[in-house]
Amino acid sequence: MAKKYFDGETYMNAKSWPFEEARKLLSRSSINEKGYALFETGYGPSGLPHIGTFGEVARTTYVRHAFECLTGTKTKLYAFSDDMDGLRKVPENIPRREMVEKYLGYPLSRVPDPFGCHESFGDHNNCKLREFLDSFGFAYEFQSSTHWYKSGKFNDVLQKVLIYHREILEIMLVSLREERAATYSPFLPISPKTGRVLQQNIDEYRIDAGTVVFKDEDGTVTETPVTDGNCKLQWKVDWAARWASLDVDYEMAGKDLIDSVKLSSKICKILGKTPPEGFNYELFLDEEGKKISKSKGNGLSLDQWLRYAPAESLANFMFASPKSAKKLYFDVIPRQVDDYTAHLRNFKIQEPAKQVDNPAWHISDGNPPDPETDISYSLLLNLVSVCNTDDKNVLWGFIKKYSPGAIPESMPLLDRLAQHAINYYQDFVKSQKYYEVPTDNERESFMDLLNELGRLGGGESAEQIQAIVFEVGKRHEFPDLKSWFSALYRHLLGQSDGPRMGSFIALYGVANTQKLLQEALDRK
What we know:
Distance between the termini: 54 Å
Number of strands: 12
Helix content: 40-55%
Strand order of the largest sheet: 1-2-3
Largest sheet: 3 strands, parallel
Mean pLDDT: 94
Number of helices: 25
Structural class: mainly alpha
CATH topology of the largest domain: Rossmann fold
């Protein structure tokens, strides 16, 4: 499908959150002065990119695209790596940890690569970040903190931090514990002797000379320039200085950084610039509603999500309600896949005012693909379950009967979903399957449905079959129709919930469904 464009009024009246965010930028004079709007996302290269990295870049990309549609103005997205940060602790999931431990406190761009394939550990993880972003097709420009410091690109703003260090200290010290405040400085000098990033008290700020004076690790009184990579800034000051130096227009951050955003914004103003627009997104929760922690490992990794569902479904998860806390665990995956494919189907029949707010339009950069089929991921999961297979060709046998002419080559998304469904079933569903013995009432209802299906002539639609299933349930003594369908799921599929039965029977086949009913009736 060609990229879907709308008129200016449709964009201006769009209600989806990326457009609401993009409209915040319309009055920023800095965009007109630069000739483009600069969006930024940050990355800490002490570890590999993760699901949160994907979420921040994806969400920023949605706002960027919305702004381009609103204004036609050129934009840039900087993926900025903080590779001048000192290594604070040795990650547990790397080789040669003993070697890396010797470089605690060194800038990440000076720590040897434990994997032995790049000049530094920072370079290694920066490369992984670029590979990661490229694999999802994100449009961005990579930026290295080390390069900006050492090349002199930050020199002007570093001089300003030196000039206004007292005002910056007034902002920062009230936010710090007494012990931390006693030695705090906006500047972290790099030791000329060891190369480490030092958390040392600054004894003297020499504005005219452009230097600071401090005691090196061996106690030597040392004077060093604040420019050219001889010092780096404390991170909240660093964030503000980056905003000011690059003239960043938009950057979002997690809810846990609300106070940091406020402090950095005040410092940015002291440095003579307007802080970027943005918002604080909510953090993810695990199945028990607890905050996800990488160190605890109680979350869902990106690789895990992509084993069970396509990236578009993860993008859909990130798009929905970014300011609301959401649980991130395996059970959310099927719903996100089906929500995304439903958005694709709806897009085809929506009017422009609805299309521009459709998540699929944002996720696909204004170019959503055509919906391939009405077969849902949930339906595929149940098909895998009754087939008890790890062979994708078995699923395609049923799909081709349901949709004559369908082949994997013409339905690549459905083909991916078939494999994803197999993976999900094998890892989560198979071990949980349990078939109960029907009650007398359930036996009577199953026999009734078996007979009704036997009267079908073939070619009935999923809706017609669904109506028959409804009528059978109404004829028997179930508290409600939900209980009737629950009985079908438990006895036919061996699980507590399941698909729309009309669609399932149409896909799996009437004769095959009759066999399932007979197996339930024969169960002792």
